[in-house]
Amino acid sequence: MDAIQLIYLVPLLPLIGCLINGLARNVLSKTIIGIIGSAVVFISFCISVLIFMQVSKEGFVTQNIHYFDFIHVGKLLIPFEFQVDQLTSLFLLIITGVGFLIHVYSISYMKEESQSGFGRYFSYLNLFVFSMLILVLGGNYVIMYIGWEGVGLCSYLLIGFWFKDQANNDAGKKAFIMNRIGDVGFLLAVFWMISAFGTASYAPLYNSENGIISSITALNSPAIVGITLLLFVGAIGKSAQIPLYTWLPDAMAGPTPVSALIHAATMVTAGIYMIARSNILYSLAPVTLAGVASIGLITAIVAAIIALKQNDIKKVLAYSTVSQLGYMFLGLGVGAYSAAVFHVMTHAFFKALLFLAAGSVIHAMGGEQDMTKMGGLGKKMKITYVTFFIATLAIAGIPPFSGFFSKDEILSAAFAQSPLLYILGVGGALLTAFYMFRALAMTFKGNFRGTAEQEHHVHESPAAMTIPLIILAILSIVGGFVGIPEVFVKNANKFNDFLSPVFAHSATFMSENHVSHQTDLILIIVSSVLIIVVSIWGYNKYKNYTPSPAVSDNAFVKAVKNKFYIDEAYDILFVKPYRALGAFLNNIFDQKGIDGIVNGVGRSVNYGSRQLRLLQSGQVGSYLLLMVIGLLILFIIQLFTK
Amino acid sequence: MEIKWYIFLSLTLFCIGIIGALTRRNSIIVFMCIELMLNSVNLMLVAFSKMHMAGANILSYSMASSAQIFVFFIMIVAAAEVSVGLAIIVLLYRNTRSIDINFLNRLKN
């Protein structure tokens, strides 16, 4: 059977699940809601596996499945179509696979929730999976945009899931508005693309034989640079890069599985997917690529520095997500598209695992997220501890865990571009290793620093939560082996080979200054040794963490603790002037101007009629006089108009 | 005789009528002034009709005579107006023991 014919089921099932869980949330029991929510994603996952197997066969060509004409105006035709190629099928696996594990985890994590809240949660979660699948399946940028907006909406709904607390609502709004800023860029890029090339579908644009864009050879043409820059603005918003990253740490207000699914594993990687999808376009605009690489690198380092001094366990992970996304953009920017997608995959495994393990910790601590009040949990929560430890090793980039392979591939591509990028990248990786081991040590080692009641309450989470942790931990360990660098084993980078058809055309634009195997090996060894040393240092430093009495921090540490005052700066630069403008428009322009005109018309008619009323004196003589004057005026007018 | 003399006469009568109607307070005088204005117009119509007909062919007779028919209309309407107007003046006198038209402002409100 041709699995690709079933592809419509992949997004349709989560949509059905969303409708069932949403409409019948007060009727069905929590168990049934949980089963429906997880099962639809699981079936989607099974179909995705079938599709993946078909796609990975020899001689597979990209397939375009046309369903109906979505927009048909004049010469413009935007069909509702899906495109299936290697990149799509990989993202399908990540979304449905990790998504399914997180659904299962959620059943246990959210069981304290009220009946209707539980249904609402699974409904939103399914809707998110649906939107994300539309995003990656869409065969043109308009369909991608539908999914793009859909995931933004679900992100908003789930961040503000506990809407009774105003802070959560504010965080949701912040995420939504910041995403909108990026979305405007995306939308403008789509318009520009349609006006420049007449279509937004991938097939006619990127087709390897006669694609509109793939037949262009001129680099840096203004239209292409403009389109790529605008698309990148969209990616900055969605993937939380500088300067639009501040929403992501605030998005941790949502339930922890949501943070794992949306704000770590899938949605925030939409920007990377979009750029990887448009790789031919980007390869034609090296100017934009340089911008992508520098924004990515700056974000990776700044976010890592901020993460050093965060005490909220979820905030640490949030900044680490921002930082890792920065690495992915660095990879895209240096033209290592498949390395970036590789990092998306491994990151989905270990970051989802980190969040879920953190969720397990928070669950055990009765909602406590402050790491200064934890400590010593390793003894009581063995599975959580071990899985968190594995994820930490993976994210730090210690061989042979998955993060090592993907990060190394990005860094070695960066070295081929410029050693400076490499050195800064390794610097960021060292910071990552430090703050992750700090979080690990503060949470699981040393003495318990919370209340006695919490200490009594601490327990290992139930199986529904630990099994996803274990599966993700296994994936975090072995996930990297699909992309072993050439240095170690010849032709073992299965991942690159798998994705190479997608990036084949772009590869012709890339400079051929590959790093020699010897240099590569030295780089790998040096960076790995440095990372291991820093990891041990960070671990030892915080192993026996005791909250020290307030030491006066120097200015830099203080700035880091306060996240470089970015939120405050945005507040002063954008929010306050915007509010002032709003107040001006409300108080002066609207109330005095518009209302003034409207009320003024009424008032002047009132006043005028009061004055005119005096003419009705009752004096017959004056009426006659007015009549005569009126006639005279008419005569005069007649005289002059003839 | 030229048409302009008729026009001057008729205009003079009309202006006398207007000035009389505007300045006098005695309602009977005002009434007479209105009649004067109507008749000045009648005079004008008849004069135009006569002058238009002079030296014209047979066809224009009917057209010219329509002006004279208007004169009759105006006379009839004026007669009707006189009957109503005099009745109003009689009632005014009964109510106010005066025929000063400014007493009519009591109809206000």
SSE blueprint and pairings:
The complex is a heterodimer of chains A (642) and B (109).
Chain A lengths: L8 H15 L6 H26 L7 E11 L2 E9 L1 H24 L5 H23 L3 H19 L6 H32 L4 H5 L15 H17 L8 H4 L5 H10 L4 H8 L1 H5 L2 H22 L5 H21 L3 H28 L17 H15 L5 H16 L1 H26 L7 H6 L5 H16 L15 H14 L9 H27 L11 H7 L4 H48 L6 H22 L1
Antiparallel strand pairs in A: 1-2
Helix pairs in contact in A: 1-2, 1-4, 2-3, 2-4, 3-4, 3-10, 3-15, 3-20, 4-5, 5-6, 5-10, 6-8, 8-11, 8-13, 10-15, 13-14, 13-18, 14-15, 14-17, 14-18, 15-16, 15-17, 15-20, 15-21, 16-18, 16-20, 17-18, 18-22
Chain B lengths: L2 H21 L3 H27 L5 H38 L13
Report on the architecture of this protein.
- The complex is a heterodimer of chains A (642) and B (109).
- With 642 residues, chain A is mostly helical.
- Chain A has 2 domains: 3-545, no CATH class; 568-597.
- Chain A contains 25 helices and 2 strands.
- In chain A, a hairpin with a 2-residue loop joins strand 1 (63-73) and strand 2 (76-84).
- The termini of chain A are far apart.
- Chain B has 109 residues and is an all-alpha fold.
- In chain B, 79% of the residues lie in helices and 0% in strands.
- The termini of chain B are far apart.
- The chains are: A mainly alpha (642), B mainly alpha (109).
- Chains A and B meet through helix 25 of A and helix 1 of B.
